[in-house]
């Protein structure tokens, strides 16, 4: 049995509940998954500024969970918030939603579009697309809604904006598949796939299946160089407890 942790690095409990439901439907029955968020940080992650603060909360959760025997982590934010730092903190494999979704999309379509809620997220995601070597075949577009619109009274409006933007990408960008660019969209992936008639990749599902596979194969994050444990040193003030000497 593999024990997986899915961490929503923002404070939206509604998103965490949706992510937990999707995770439990996605993993194999013999495996176990927990889903949680930090107890401090931003309500949502919409750009670089939010991401910087959310990364600290993410790392605090991993520091707490790692001694309990977690076999793999999913960072449930499409910005892949703090993924590289998390890989330095744990031996267990760590996967962000963007990287997981791109790997799935590359196997399903020659060209695809990531549709994210806000325009402020487009450039950060384009940087990730280049990092993952997918910039020739992938475009990033925004639906023009807030991330938190995908829950509560604005959910219907947000879905309509997402659908319209996805349709436009199929027609104007030559996309053959759509990637959902936000963890909060995880519960509408099947509906959008049915409405559009093309593959719709949910990063939550994709990242979970990738981490689950790595855990089942007993593969761990290499500590040889890039993701090696950081050298011991002092941190000060509010970050004292994060000093690498305690890793």
From TrEMBL:
Question: What's an example of a GO molecular-function annotation for this chain?
Answer: amino-acid racemase activity
> What would be one Pfam family of this protein?
Asp_Glu_race
User: Which InterPro entries does the annotation name?
Assistant: Asp/Glu/hydantoin_racemase, Asp/Glu_race, Hydantoin_racemase-like, Iso_Racemase_Enz_sf
The similarity comment for this entry is: Belongs to the HyuE racemase family.
List, alphabetically, the PANTHER family matched.
Answer: PROTEIN DCG1 (PTHR28047)
Q: What is this protein called?
A: Asp/Glu/hydantoin racemase
